[in-house]
């Protein structure tokens, strides 16, 4: 009987028990992580790894866009930001441009930090 990786099991449990707010935070963290991996891959000229991780970041942004509730005016602002980030991710991937990825990470970190503050103010757990 094969033993499961305890770290993978922990992560799976963390996701399954997370609140929607915590899942959003995890997605921001994931997008940042994938951009960081892509930056390192570009520096090491591993273009396939860069491509794979940029696409992972794009999918997270697509998920954010798909879950926007457009009945709230602020959703339109987020939509514009997400569209911009998607366009920049495509450009970064086409040109394997780490400066664009660093710019994207700046935006993602800002959004993540704002989200953490919203969670804190609403007394939700923040890791």
What do you see in this structure?
With 127 residues, the protein is mostly helical. It has one domain: Flagellar protein FliS (Four Helix Bundle (Hemerythrin (Met), subunit A)), CATH 1.20.120.340. Helix content is 81%, strand content 0%. It is built from 5 helices and no strands. It is globular and about 45 Å long.
Outline of this structure?
The chain is built from 5 helices and no strands.
How widely separated are the two ends?
34 Å
Low-confidence stretches: none
Radius of gyration: 16 Å
Query: SSE order, as H and E?
Result: HHHHH
SSE topology sketch:
Layout: H1 6-17, H2 20-43, H3 47-66, H4 73-95, H5 98-121
Helix pairs in contact: 2-3, 2-5, 3-4, 4-5
Characteristics:
Four Helix Bundle (Hemerythrin (Met), subunit A), mainly alpha, 127 residues, 81% helix, globular
């Amino acid at each position: 009987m094969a033993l499961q990786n305890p770290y993978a099991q922990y992560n799976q449990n963390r996701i399954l028990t997370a609140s929607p707010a915590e899942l959003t935070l995890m997605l921001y963290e994931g997008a940042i992580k994938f951009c960081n991996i892509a930056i390192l891959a570009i520096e090491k000229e591993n273009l396939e790894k860069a491509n794979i991780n940029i696409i992972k970041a794009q999918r997270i942004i697509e998920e954010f866009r798909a879950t926007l509730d457009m009945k709230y005016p602020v959703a339109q602002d987020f939509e514009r930001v997400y569209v911009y980030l998607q366009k920049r991710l495509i450009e970064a991937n086409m040109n394997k441009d780490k400066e664009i990825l660093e710019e994207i990470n700046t935006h993602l970190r800002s959004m993540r930090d704002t989200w953490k503050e919203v969670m804190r103010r609403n007394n939700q757990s923040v890791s």
